[in-house]
Amino acid sequence: MKKKEKKIAIKVIVSILIFAIAIFLSYEFGLFKKRCKDDKCFSEAVIKCKMAKYHKLRDFNYYTYEIKGKRGGKCVIKITLDKMAEGTSIKEKMLFEGKSMVCRVPPENLNATTIENIENFLEYCTGPLKESIYKVIIEKLYGLILHNIGDVVVEMRDLLKTK
């Protein structure tokens, strides 16, 4: 082989190696995410905190779950409510639709996780979706208090009369 042909062969081999390493590193550092098609695949990815993306229909609402990987010793999971169920009020759609939250979950809490109980991580989450969830919870509690305040006042009045 001539000297020129050897140089070309070496350049081709080096180029192929660089390309293969770039593909491997891109996968490892998150440019390529595993696309899960079922709960089992995503649950396995959560337990290992391996980057993955999963679209799920739950209670007639469309969610996107995305594992971003480990950062600061915690598993980062982004949950987005993409589209709410047909028939949902406009007020609720405006409150929830398109909003997301990012959860930073300690690894020791990942072992017993399934897609069905991932909302138990709410204490580790931040973002507009969490704020909307809390807003609804507070409004419901406020409604219960107002609904029952009459009974409480009557009981307090009766207690005060007997003393």
What are the key terms here?
163 residues, 2 domains, six-stranded mixed β-sheet, 6 strands
User: What portion of residues is helical?
Assistant: 40-55%
Distance between the termini: 111 Å
Low-pLDDT runs: none
Average pLDDT, rounded to a whole number, is: 84
How many individual β-strands? 6
Strand order of the largest sheet: 1-2-3-4-5-6
Which structural class do you get from the secondary structure elements?
A: alpha+beta
| Radius of gyration from CA coordinates | 26 Å
Number of domains: 2
Order of helices and strands: HEHEEEHEEH
Number of H/I helices: 4
Query: What percent of residues are in strands?
Result: 15-25%
Describe the biggest sheet? 6 strands, mixed
Q: What is the overall silhouette?
A: elongated
Chart the SSEs and their pairings.
Blueprint lengths: L2 H26 L5 E3 L2 H10 L3 E7 L2 E11 L2 E10 L6 H7 L2 E7 L19 E2 L1 H35 L1
